[in-house]
Amino acid sequence: MQSGTDQAIGIDGTRQPKGPGVAKGLLKMRETGLIAIILLLVVVMSFASPYFLTWVNIRTVIMAFAVEGIVVVGMTILLISGGIDLSVGSVTALAMVIGGWLFLAGFDPWIASAIAIGCCTAVGAFMGFFVTKIGLHHFIVSLAVMVIARGICLLGTGGRPLGLYTLPPEFKFIGQGSLGPVPVVILTFIVIVVIFDILLRRTTMFRKVFYTGSNERAAAYSGIRTKRVIFATTTLCSTLCGVAGVIYMARFGSAQPTFGIGMELNVIAAAVIGGASLNGGTGTIFGAILGAALLSLVSSSLALLDVSVYWQDIIRGSILLAAVTIDLFLNKRRG
Amino acid sequence: MTDVVLKLSGIHKSFGSVQALRGVDLTMRRGEIHALAGENGAGKSTLMNVIDGILAPDRGTISWEGREVTIGSPTEAQKLGIGLVHQEIALCPDVSVAENILMAQMNMSRRLFVDYAALEARAAEVLGQLADIDPRQRAGDLSISNQQLVEIAKALTLDCKVLILDEPTAALTDKEAQILFGIMRRLADRGIAIIYISHRMAEIFDNCDRVTVFRDGRHISTMQVSEIEPQDVVKAMVGRVIDDLYPDKADAPGSDVVLDVRNLSEATRFRDVSFHLKRREVLGIAGLIGAGRSEIAKGICRIEGDITGEVWLNGKPLKLRDYGESIDAGMVYLSEDRKGSGLFLDMSIAENISALDLSRIARRGGRIDARKEHARARELGQRLGLKYGRLSDPVSSLSGGNQQKVAIAKMLSVDPALIFLDEPTRGVDVGAKAEIHRILRDLAQSGVGIVVISSELPELIGLCDRILVIREGRVGGEVTGNEMTEEAIMSLASGVAFEGAAQ
Ligand SMILES: Nc1ncnc2c1ncn2[C@@H]1O[C@H](COP(=O)(O)OP(=O)(O)OP(=O)(O)O)[C@@H](O)[C@H]1O
Ligand SMILES: [Mg+2]
């Protein structure tokens, strides 16, 4: 380190510009770590079960988290902005129920789906309103909405699934079809992930989400309309729940009012394992999806090994705890 | 030497590739006030964190009253009798002032049941010596200077043998600082050793017994204050002589007006404020804490408060709805609270600098150009003499003064037409301070409007062409040229006429 005021060369003498990839080096570290763990698990499992590395099984594993992965995208962005949403499971079910109900009432399934997604957006806006205008906490508002939306689902269906046997094949295609060997669901998931990952890393619009989550007051003192940002991320998360709900509807050919109970825990766990902080300001889509993949992989591995479902919950919970603990220690060492 | 309380020798500490301390020594004697000086990033706060057990040294020994010790945590440090007032204020904003003060004491108590009444009485007593603050108030509602006083009170309630004050006066007014010095002297007379960190030479020379200077993590010298001159300290700090802390003033301000404020009022905080700023002029705003100086600037920029009245910038009336529009119009505000509202501590240096206007680092379609972002940050860092490892490091890894430079770089990054700077050199070392003053003068010379709010009267007098004094939310008066004396400003600020003060 030199003294005097005329130097701005880094202390370690580096001068070359660092791209955004390197700038997010710490988060990258988390992602490479996750990839390593996933690969390790895959290798171990491929020895344990010859069936594991077949395309059919890989496809099943991906299918198992692809739709929920769309919700993970929304949740991660919301977490980065400093919010949280407990209502994702109920709102996803709400989209199914509204879509299914409208379809049975004679609407075209595409229009029914669009209205269902629109309703979810409205639910998100409703939560955003309570958070930004009334000043309530995300946790409380979304807890209330979680219960309310579930109630609406049950009320509207009498608690029984709506069978949608007459859905036209071109609509079922989005949930059940394949393009070549790849299911449409997986393609949709990949497209959404890639789009939001790029948006979040590269655009000014989403950079404001990081500023807001990192220090809301400082963001306001930087001319950022933080309330708008939070309103937008809250609404976006619910909208993506709507998209997921519609895909589930096409996939199952039915609308289940009790669908998605406990989904919020899975989704939040995935985002946090992937590097998002509940304090806001950090997280990546790629990391969160890796988190979701890891959780799904563990479940399917345990299923293949005939481990009881009850054990699975215990193990998933432990993974979450381990991931955050390791992260805390890495952070401490850096500090 | 029985009067040595604390002795540090050969302390090393690195953070990754940054060597913050490279074998420093420090000896503290009972009853002395020992100043610690050094440029931003010299390692002062790092050494204090080592003493307080927050950081473990990589190498080196600490001996306490002649016995070698390892201090593993702040609690252990407290048990030995070490109290530290951090450079950065860290109160729990949601609980009361009294509870904040009590927290440290409860931590020390070995009893299961706490005698709240006694602790509260003690908190009130200690606080009472320092300032007139209601102990039942929410800590987060206090002004920055009052928060700083609460931090000091927290340390004073602990019966310590070594008290460390890391730049306590950066956030205090002159009057509050004088009270603090009085208390420090009384403590020293009782045998307590005080480590006092400051960038202000006058404070060191008026109040301290010895001074130790660090440079780049090394111990440069320890001197008896009575035997040296301020220049000696500055020279040891920066390795050269700084002849002038303040640049030359403008010969004559231009005739056109940059900013014209007419009858600005806000519901409770200020009334009927009118003033203007001419081209090439640096305007100062003085006043007591709570007089409404910051509020006026924030009101003009539309950050806080609903204002009535007119604001003209470069001959055009402004009709701003929020701060975003103010930034677009070229009017920015540097906050006095850099940790709370100035910086994103866990985000990178580059990301902090570009936060005000992302369109400047964006390509079409709102894509961020990382190369441009880093180039801009590097250029501004160079201009302000910022010391950092990499631009992608989080701002929290910088020393306090360097964080302040990032906050200033953030303002300059938008090429503003007018900047309000609230306490712009808080925590900045002498060399960098002179540099910031020169940059502000150059900006004014090139046509940018500069308005400086500062509690440091010598700074206002040295830097500004004209000083507006605010008293209780109104313009109490104005001084220029030779009328700019501390007495004149204080009398206008408090409304009490001093002997021979300007009218
Ligand atoms: N947690 C950390 N991680 C990385 N680097 C750090 C960390 N803390 C301090 N540093 C570095 O160590 C050096 C010394 O910092 P320190 O805070 O001790 O300086 P200082 O003398 O107190 O400066 P100032 O007058 O600005 O407060 C700086 O270069 C700083 O960037
Ligand atoms: Mg410091």
From TrEMBL, chain A:
<feature type="transmembrane region" description="Helical">
    <location>
        <begin position="86"/>
        <end position="104"/>
    </location>
</feature>
<keyword id="KW-0472">Membrane</keyword>
<keyword id="KW-1003">Cell membrane</keyword>
<feature type="transmembrane region" description="Helical">
    <location>
        <begin position="256"/>
        <end position="278"/>
    </location>
</feature>
<feature type="transmembrane region" description="Helical">
    <location>
        <begin position="58"/>
        <end position="79"/>
    </location>
</feature>
<keyword id="KW-0812">Transmembrane</keyword>
<dbReference type="Pfam" id="PF02653">
    <property type="entry name" value="BPD_transp_2"/>
</dbReference>
<feature type="transmembrane region" description="Helical">
    <location>
        <begin position="310"/>
        <end position="330"/>
    </location>
</feature>
<feature type="transmembrane region" description="Helical">
    <location>
        <begin position="34"/>
        <end position="52"/>
    </location>
</feature>
<feature type="region of interest" description="Disordered">
    <location>
        <begin position="1"/>
        <end position="21"/>
    </location>
</feature>
<feature type="transmembrane region" description="Helical">
    <location>
        <begin position="139"/>
        <end position="159"/>
    </location>
</feature>
<dbReference type="InterPro" id="IPR001851">
    <property type="entry name" value="ABC_transp_permease"/>
</dbReference>
<feature type="transmembrane region" description="Helical">
    <location>
        <begin position="229"/>
        <end position="250"/>
    </location>
</feature>
<keyword id="KW-1133">Transmembrane helix</keyword>
<feature type="transmembrane region" description="Helical">
    <location>
        <begin position="110"/>
        <end position="132"/>
    </location>
</feature>
<feature type="transmembrane region" description="Helical">
    <location>
        <begin position="285"/>
        <end position="304"/>
    </location>
</feature>
<protein>
    <submittedName>
        <fullName>ABC transporter permease</fullName>
    </submittedName>
</protein>
<feature type="transmembrane region" description="Helical">
    <location>
        <begin position="179"/>
        <end position="200"/>
    </location>
</feature>
UniProtKB/TrEMBL annotation, chain B:
<keyword id="KW-1003">Cell membrane</keyword>
<keyword id="KW-0677">Repeat</keyword>
<dbReference type="GO" id="GO:0005524">
    <property type="term" value="F:ATP binding"/>
</dbReference>
<protein>
    <submittedName>
        <fullName>Sugar ABC transporter ATP-binding protein</fullName>
    </submittedName>
</protein>
<dbReference type="Pfam" id="PF00005">
    <property type="entry name" value="ABC_tran"/>
</dbReference>
<keyword id="KW-0813">Transport</keyword>
<keyword id="KW-0067">ATP-binding</keyword>
<keyword id="KW-0472">Membrane</keyword>
<keyword id="KW-0547">Nucleotide-binding</keyword>
<dbReference type="InterPro" id="IPR017871">
    <property type="entry name" value="ABC_transporter-like_CS"/>
</dbReference>
<dbReference type="InterPro" id="IPR003439">
    <property type="entry name" value="ABC_transporter-like_ATP-bd"/>
</dbReference>
<dbReference type="InterPro" id="IPR003593">
    <property type="entry name" value="AAA+_ATPase"/>
</dbReference>
<feature type="domain" description="ABC transporter">
    <location>
        <begin position="6"/>
        <end position="241"/>
    </location>
</feature>
<dbReference type="InterPro" id="IPR050107">
    <property type="entry name" value="ABC_carbohydrate_import_ATPase"/>
</dbReference>
<feature type="domain" description="ABC transporter">
    <location>
        <begin position="252"/>
        <end position="497"/>
    </location>
</feature>
<keyword id="KW-1278">Translocase</keyword>
<dbReference type="InterPro" id="IPR027417">
    <property type="entry name" value="P-loop_NTPase"/>
</dbReference>
<keyword id="KW-0762">Sugar transport</keyword>
